[in-house]
Amino acid sequence: MLDNTRLRGELVHIHRTLSGVAAGARGKTLIDDVRRQVGGTTAALLWQSLFADCLRVAYSAAAADGAIGDDEVEALYEFVFSAARHYAGVLPTIYGEFAAIDEDSVRVFLDRYAADRSLFGRGATRHWPGLDLCRRAAELGEAEPLERYERMMVWLITAACQIGGVTEADPRWHGRVDELDELRR
Q1: CB–CB of 84/91 below 8 Å?
Q2: 185 burial level (CB within 10 Å; 0-12, 13-18, 19+)
Q3: CA 149 – CA 114 distance, rounded (Å)
Q4: What parts of the chain have a pLDDT lower than 70?
Q5: Are 18 and 134 in contact (CB under 8 A)?
Q6: What is the mean pLDDT of the chain?
Q7: How far is CA 160 from CA 2, 24, 64, in A?
Q8: For the residues of 81-130, what is the DSSP string, one character each?
Q9: Would you report the helix, strand and coil content of the chain in percent, each value rounded to 5?
Q10: Which pLDDT value is given to residue 171?
Q11: CB–CB of 42/29 below 8 Å?
């Protein structure tokens, strides 16, 4: 079971700090790239960027063997429930029906995410919008979001790989979790 309380706590802290950066004079352009592609409030776009990164990690590990099993759905349910609400709020034309999901609709949401080529979908060309924002904040002089993000992702990758049954050192996973290796670097 993914510790959604821990994850949410880390995300809240990173979000709060990024919000402070975005509200400052130097950070006014922090989310301009995101806002040009997807409308929304600063708070919603920051949340969405962070949730997109976490969902990419969870999905990559769970789907590494080619299928997401019932046990993986159960272990990720609370997190996917939270993520789906954010996706529905920011991208209502694609995800609006997922404002509230149950265990039966988790798979439908994950399938929609897997086919999505927009900024926050699995097929996005920029894989880590949350990381990009944390890096930009660090460039503006606020390193804390990036430091917390890095620690959170190390934990999240390990937890998601346990849920997905992925042993990163095992050669059979080579090529299937490259994105996670990319993020670690």
Answers
A1: no
A2: exposed
A3: 23
A4: 168-185
A5: yes
A6: 90
A7: 7, 35, 11
A8: HHHHHHHHHH-HHHHGGGSS--HHHHHHHHHHHHH--STTSTT-SSS-HH
A9: 70, 0, 30
A10: 57
A11: no
